[in-house]
Amino acid sequence: MNSVPFVTQVVGALWFLLPLAVLAAFFKSPWFKGVAGEAVINLSAWLFLDHQEYRLIRDVTLPTADGTTQIDHVIVSAYGVFVIETKNMKGWIFGQLHQRQWTQKIFKHTNRFQNPLRQNYKHVKALQDLFGLDDDQIHSLVVFVGDSKFKTPMPENVTYGGGYIRYIKSKRRLMLLPSKVEAIEQEIANYRLPSSLATRRAHVQQVRDSVAKRESEHTCTKCGSPMVMRKSAGGRNPGQLFWGCSSFPKCRHTASFDS
Description:
Shape: globular
CATH topology of the largest domain: ECO RI Endonuclease, Chain A
Order of helices and strands: HHEEEEEEHEEEHHHEEE
Radius of gyration: 23 Å
Helix content: 25-40%
Structural class: alpha/beta
């Protein structure tokens, strides 16, 4: 029996499946999830917010004293500046206002992630410092998209999908004069870094450098070796970030990530 045609058929089938596998990996990548999540916000704003009353500014990267900060969306209006952090996640989401970390649970898998309100705080402060805004003139807003479900009561400024439109429209107290709205929109255009792949890469590298710096500032109190950031794979708190001694397993000292 000649096996060459069979082998040829198998190779042909694999070549056919390869592009599908690449596409599947692409659609599951964090980058695509982020883009898809931001697209949901963009479309909702375009459909349900008056373009004259609410000015949507996307993908804003601003220079700060310690590097850069990247903001998914800024909406400027007479009712204040809305600073939006987007989370494209699936599974059950557990979290409370003042917790440092929230929990994502997908079947038996548990993952900890930074409280997105804390994450958005830096974005809010950057805009406040830039434009001299009071606390009541700026609104922090977190929007979850994707196949996720809240399993604990959330603050009113943490919403799912189009719920953020209702939150924005609920703010009816005039906070900014039309001239100030125009000035803020123009100043963002002046101060923001170019919306490009190079800017994104530079920001990601800055975040990595910041983590590395934090690691260099932590030394093991037991043996003096550098401490490195690690994530728990099991135990009582799977997915929890912590500082672990770089000399592991020779030294097993650990410390809370927040210490």
